[in-house]
UniProtKB/TrEMBL annotation:
Residues 1-22 form the signal peptide. The keyword Cell membrane does not apply. This is Branched chain amino acid ABC transporter substrate-binding protein. It comes from Janibacter melonis. Residues 46-399 form the Leucine-binding protein domain. It comes from the Bacteria. Keywords: Signal. InterPro entries: Leu-bd, Peripla_BP_I. Gene3D superfamilies: 3.40.50.2300. Belongs to the leucine-binding protein family.
C-alpha cells in the first residue's frame, strides 16, 4: 500500500481540540442538526443530506455513516469554516431499498437548503438516487458504493460518466474483486473456488470481477451459484457447492446473508473459508456466522482506520462524541465525504445568497477538491472516483476481524 500523509503532532492536537470541543456535549446518537455551539443568529442554513439504511439488517453500517457525517458537520460549525453559514444534517432512511431511496432523494431534492448528500451504502440504491439528485444539481458523495457503472456507465470498454454530480471516497468492484482473487490465489494458495452471489448489483458485480481475475491468474471456478437474499436457509446451494469440493467460497453480497451462509456451510461439512467483499466486513457477520467463522475472509476499502495516523483525530473525536453506534466499515470514508462537500461549499457559498443557486457551483468545485482526510489523500478523478486504490484483506481470528494484508492495487 501507499502510506497516507501523516498529520503533524501540532495539527493533530489542534484537530483533537476542535473535535472534542464540538462533541463534548454530544452525549447521544447522531442525526441532529450538526449545529455545534458556534455562530450567530444571522447565519444562513445549508444542509448536507444523508441517505443510508438507518433501520433494518444493514442499519449498523448506516448509522456509522450518519454519525460520521454528523461529526464532520459539528467540527465545521465549531471552527467557523463556512463564515455566515450554519450546516445542518438531514438524514433519510433508505432501508437498503431502491424505491425507498428514490423517495428519500426526492424529499431532499425538494428542500431548498440541501446542497449535497452523503450516501448511499448500496450500489443498487444509488442507481435510483443518483439520477434524482443529478437532475436537482445536488452533489452526491458515496462512502460505500462500489458498483463500477455508477461512474463509468454500462460499457466498460467505452466508459462514459452517467452522473456529473456523483463522486465517491471508496474504491470500486473493478478493484476489490481482483484484489480478493489475488489474495486467495497468490497468498492463500487456493486454486479452486465456488462463487455465490445474491443477484443484486453489488454482489453480482463483485463476483464477476473476482471470477475474471481469478481465472486469469490460473484459478478454477468449480461452481457458480446464487441465493435469494430474502431466504435464510441455503441447504440446496450448500449441498450443490459441497459436491464440487472447492477450497474456498467467494460470496458476493452482504453480511445478513453471508453470516448464516457461512454457518450453514460449516454445519453441513463444507469446512472451507467463505470470503466476501466490504459488504460482509462487519462484526455483525461474525455474530451471525458463529464460532466456526474463524478463517473466513473479507476485503474492505482503504487501510484499517484504527491503524492510520491520519485517522487518529477522527477515531478519538468519534469516541468522545458519545455515539451509541460504532463508525463501522465506512465511518472514515463518510467523514471524508462530508468534508469533501464542505470543502466545495467554501468555494460555492463564498458569495452566494441562497443554496439552490449554489448547487451547480458545488458540483463544479468538487472536481478540484483535494485535502488530507481521515483516510489519507482525498481527491477525485475525471469520473468522480477516488484516486486512492488501497484495500485490506481481513481474516476472522479468535472471533473478530483481523487485518492480514494492506496494499495499493495496481494493474498487471
Amino acid at each position: 500500500m501507499t502510506k497516507r500523509s501523516v498529520i503533524s503532532a501540532g495539527a493533530t492536537l489542534l484537530a483533537m481540540s476542535m473535535a472534542l470541543s464540538a462533541c463534548g456535549t454530544r452525549g447521544g446518537d447522531g442525526g441532529g442538526d450538526g449545529a455545534g455551539s458556534g455562530g450567530g443568529g444571522d447565519e444562513k442554513v445549508v444542509k448536507i443530506g444523508v441517505i443510508a439504511p438507518l433501520s433494518g439488517d444493514l442499519s449498523a453500517l448506516g448509522k456509522g455513516i450518519e454519525n460520521s457525517v454528523d461529526l464532520a458537520v459539528k467540527e465545521a460549525n465549531e471552527s467557523g469554516e463556512l463564515e455566515g453559514w450554519k450546516i445542518e444534517v438531514a438524514a433519510e432512511d433508505d432501508q437498503a431499498n431502491p424505491d425507498v431511496g428514490k423517495n428519500a432523494a426526492s424529499k431532499l431534492a425538494g428542500d431548498k437548503d440541501v446542497i449535497g448528500v452523503v450516501g448511499t451504502l448500496n450500489s443498487s440504491v444509488a442507481g435510483t438516487v443518483a439520477p434524482v439528485l443529478n437532475t436537482a444539481k445536488i452533489v452526491e458523495v458515496s462512502p460505500a458504493n462500489t458498483g463500477v457503472s455508477l461512474t463509468k456507465g454500462e460499457d466498460p470498454d467505452n466508459p462514459q460518466r452517467p452522473y456529473a454530480n456523483y463522486f465517491r471516497t471508496c474504491t470500486t468492484d473493478a478493484v476489490q474483486g481482483p484484489f480478493a482473487a489475488r489474495y486467495l490465489f497468490e497468498k492463500a494458495g487456493i486454486k479452486e473456488v465456488a462463487t455465490i452471489h445474491d443477484k443484486k448489483a453489488y454482489g453480482q458485480g463483485l463476483v464477476e470481477s473476482f471470477t475474471s481475475e481469478f481465472e486469469k491468474l490460473g484459478g478454477k471456478v468449480v461452481a457458480a451459484e446464487t441465493i435469494n437474499p430474502d431466504d435464510d436457509k441455503y441447504d440446496a446451494v450448500v449441498t450443490s457447492v459441497k459436491a464440487k469440493n472447492p477450497k474456498a467460497v467467494y460470496y458476493g453480497g452482504e453480511y445478513p446473508q453471508a453470516g448464516p451462509l457461512s454457518q450453514q456451510m460449516k454445519a453441513q461439512g463444507l469446512d472451507v473459508p467463505l470470503m466476501g467483499g466490504d459488504g460482509i466486513f462487519s462484526p455483525e457477520f461474525v455474530k451471525l456466522a458463529g464460532k466456526n467463522s474463524n478463517g473466513d475472509l473479507a476485503t474492505s476499502i482503504g487501510a484499517p482506520t484504527e491503524k492510520l495516523d491520519s485517522a487518529k483525530a477522527f477515531v478519538d473525536a468519534y469516541e468522545a462524541g458519545g455515539y451509541s453506534d460504532p463508525y463501522e466499515a465506512y465511518g472514515a470514508q463518510s467523514y471524508d465525504a462530508a468534508n469533501a462537500i464542505i470543502e466545495a461549499m467554501k468555494v460555492s457559498l463564498k458569495d452566494a445568497d441562497d443554496v439552490e443557486g449554489a448547487r451547480q457551483a458545488t458540483i463544479d468545485a468538487m472536481k478540484d477538491v483535494s485535502f488530507d482526510g481521515a483516510t489519507g489523500k482525498v481527491a477525485f478523478d475525471e469520473f468522480g472516483d477516488t484516486t486512492t486504490r488501497v484495500l485490506t484483506a481481513y481474516e476472522v481470528k479468535d472471533g473478530k476481524w483481523t487485518d492480514v494484508s494492506t496494499e495499493e492495487f495496481t494493474e498487471k
